[in-house]
Amino acid sequence: MFSTILIILIVIIAAILIYAATRPDDFVTTRTATIKALPEAIFPLINDFRRWPEWSPYEKLDPNMQRTLSGAESGKGAAYAWEGNGTAGKGRMEIVKSVPSSLVALKLDFEKPFRANNSVDFTLTPSGDGTAVSWAMRGSRPIIAKLMGLFMNFDRLIGRDFETGLANLKRLTEA
Known about the structure:
33% helix
């Protein structure tokens, strides 16, 4: 009886691992909002890490979070490191490409609560009487992330934060 239960348990675990291994190796999470403001009004808020506390939802995760700015003041070469509680974690991001009023690309490295290396793009595209602002994050999904993804919807979790950030940008620039 015990050996039968053990065999069934092993088969179930093996099936879960095999299924997780078939999941995509990479992920992309993207959200877009149309903001009734010129790209020139939105771009400085994204291109300068000193302005992120005004709109980024991640700035509110830990009121005692330690932040370190280095490199350029804004644009390519500007870097932002943080260390906070279990929710905020620890990591660093750096602007690797900055095209005035149209693109800010970041290299995003998490150390805690888990290690991950991702890329983030903010794309601003004129659209009618406003600007379509897209926030996208791309990265690889190691097996542990694939397993977790079977039980959690990361696109929804991350996407919710992106939607909040975009709404904050909208509120700031449309006011």
